[in-house]
Write a structure and sequence with these properties.
Layout: H1 2-34, H2 41-81, H3 84-99, H4 106-133, H5 138-141, H6 147-151, H7 153-168, H8 170-187, H9 189-194, H10 196-221
Length: 222
């Protein structure tokens, strides 16, 4: 049953990803062919190469990082709908916590898919409502009093979600937190963010090595 579930999820995920990619490609294709607007292929490929060189490693690392929490179905759906870090991931983690299931289990993957789907629907509904008539709130939300809060939504969300995991595995959490903090203090947040596609896998590998050492020590004590 588990095997059939995984096969079905991956088949549907690959198919929906291909369809979504094709649909996303329609606007530029329409502009180029139907409207007769000339696009310099050389410039497009040069710009694409520059963007791909930065974002392809980030995409690979992020998907590897998300998979243990979201599962295959959650990753497929999150990548199609976007806004993973500050919407889909928190929704999935909260749903699994409320349901009392572990990330990586089949039950956890089902909950993850449902939470990501509902988060996507809620986001689309809120954006649609906002598009229709609450634009008048934007100037108030961008006031000096409220703007710092909205600028720090991501750190607040990730901090609130990370603390329970850190407290459950304090020994394993010390290494990535300490290394990331030292790099931010030494290099500056801007430099770390610009080079995250290289820093993140290094920190991940170091964390795996520390986890292996901790696991071996526990086994030796037994």
């Amino acid at each position: 049953m588990n095997n059939n579930f995984d096969i079905s999820v991956n088949r549907l995920g690959r198919t929906s990803s291909i369809v979504a990619l094709a649909m996303m490609s329609m606007p530029p294709i329409y502009v180029t062919w139907a409207m007769g607007i000339h696009i310099d292929t050389g410039n497009v490929l040069a710009a694409l190469f520059n963007v791909a060189a930065v974002f392809i490693p980030i995409c690979v690392i992020e998907n590897i990082s998300y998979y243990p929490i979201l599962g295959a179905g959650g990753v497929y759906l999150s990548c199609i709908t976007g806004n993973i870090m500050n919407m889909k991931l928190p929704a999935a983690v909260s749903g699994m916590t409320i349901a009392g299931v572990e990330p990586g289990s089949q039950e956890g993957e089902v909950i993850s898919i449902l939470c990501v789907a509902m988060s996507s629907i809620a986001t689309a509904a809120i954006l649609f409502i906002g598009m229709l008539g609450i634009g008048f709130l934007v100037p108030y939300l961008q006031t000096p009093l409220l703007k710092p809060g909205f600028d720090n939504i991501m750190p607040a969300l990730m901090g609130a979600l990370s603390i329970p995991f850190f407290l459950k595995n304090i020994k394993l959490s010390v290494t990535p937190i300490a290394v990331s903090l030292i790099l931010c203090l030494a290099l500056g947040p801007t430099t770390v963010q610009r080079n995250q596609s290289y820093i993140m896998p290094c920190v991940m590998l170091l964390s795996v090595a520390v986890a292996y050492v901790v696991h071996k020590q526990k086994e030796e004590k037994k």
